Each structure stands twice: as structure tokens, then as C-alpha cells.
Amino acid sequence: MIPDYHLHSSYSDDSEADIYDMVKSAQEKGLTSFCITDHYDRDYPAHYPDDFIFDLDTKSYMMDMLKIKKELEPTFDMRIGIELGVMPSTAEGLNSFTSEHPGIDFVIASTHIVDNEDPYYPYFYEGRSEKEAYGRYFETMLLNVSKFDDFSVYGHLDYCVRYGPNKNKYFDINDYKEIFEAAFKIIIPKGKGIEINTGSLYRGLDVPHPHKDILKLYKEMGGEILTFGSDAHSPEHIAYDFSNAALLAKSLGFKYYCTYNKLVPEFHEIP
Known about the structure:
Layout: H1 19-28, E1 33-41, H2 58-72, E2 77-85, H3 97-100, E3 106-110, H4 130-147, E4 153-154, H5 159-163, H6 177-187, E5 193-197, H7 212-220, E6 226-229, H8 242-251, E7 256-261, E8 264-269
Parallel strand pairs: 1-2, 2-3, 3-4, 4-5, 5-6
Antiparallel strand pairs: 7-8
Helix pairs in contact: 4-6
């Protein structure tokens, strides 16, 4: 089984999953390794009392993860990661994150906030067309990658499509192709990658993140670093539909997926 490299436990504000339950579920599904990637969004703008905050006591998180990792060895190989929510206002300040927190194996950079709003909420789409909202999201993602370097892969590149009014029904990469080309011209030469995120598939979409046309463009431009992640916030979704995600990757010409050890990519043949 391909290891799952996008997982959230109760250390994330939007999950109540016990990490040992996550490990048990992974083992039952045939995984011998995964990477936990709990949320940290510095300066996340909570507009309402019940909004998530996505803060993280990173010092305690690392201490706990290192302890759990040691407990699980040698029967299960848990890698320690984090999903950093990046904004143009915080990107440069996060560039020393891994040097300040030794022991991290893997970092997902993600765009969760655009113009002080999260596309998860309907109010992000109010007052503008879906195409305009998506375009603004992708423009912000490009600005983030131009300012932020301290990551391994960029997560769910079209996250906004997961929550848009029509999801991916009218999504056309040609409307935003120049933005993605510019982003990949930054990401690929720096040795950064992207992920195939299957979290959209159990949320009602019929395609993973990013859309296959974005994956195709990444490959055509020379992108090779690819991880697989379910974005699971509960044990049952670990490694969700990875078999079909692997078939998709292979159909687009990808031969390898990556795992990470101390921020260094390790290439493995896609089964």
C-alpha cells in the first residue's frame, strides 16, 4: 500500500481522531507507514465564535509525535509532518519553520485563506462569480509559492473547488492555466512537489485534488515529486481510494510516488 501522507488527528482543530486509532486503521488496511500532518495556520482569521482556529502548540506536538513514533517502532513507521496554512502575510515568516522545529519529516503547504476568508465557508463566494472566486484563490496560491520555500509539497492545489457552489462542474483549467504554469515554474526547479489528495472523493466530488488536467500540466512541465494523501480527519478515510488514484497517476505518465525522511524525498515505484 502507498503510505498516506495527509492525515489529521485530534491535534488538528477540526479533528477528534485518536492517533492510535489512526494507526490501527492504517494497519488494518495494509499500510506499514504513514505521515501525520496536523494543521497549523498562523493568524487564521476566525470570524465567528464557532469557527475553527487551526492553531497548534508546535513544541508539544513535536514532543508527543516523537514519543509516539518511538513507541510504534519497529512494527509501524510513522513519519512526522505538518500542514502549514500559508497566506501572503505569513509566508515569509514561515520560511524558518523547519529549522525552528527539528524532527519534522514532511511539510504540506496549503492555501486555506484568501483575502482573509476561507473558501470552506459560503460567504467567500458571495458577491462574485464562481470563476472569479476560483481565480482569486489560484492567484493567492501563486503569490504564496513565490514567497514561501520551506515545504515539501503543495497541498490540494484546487481546494476551493471542493467547496465552490458548483464544485468542479464548470471547472476548466484553461481559465487559469497561466497561473498554474507560473506556479509550476517556481515549484519544480526548487525540488518541490504536489500531492494527489483523495479527500474530495468522499466529500461528493468525482475527481481528486488537483483535477487531472492540473496533474497532467505538472507532469508535462517536468514535475516528478508526487505524494498521496487522503486528507482523512477520521480513521475510516485513511488511504481512501488510493488504488484508483494510483491508476490515474500512472495514466498521466507518473512512475513514482514519494515518501519523506527528514525532509528528503524518497522515490518508490507506483504499484
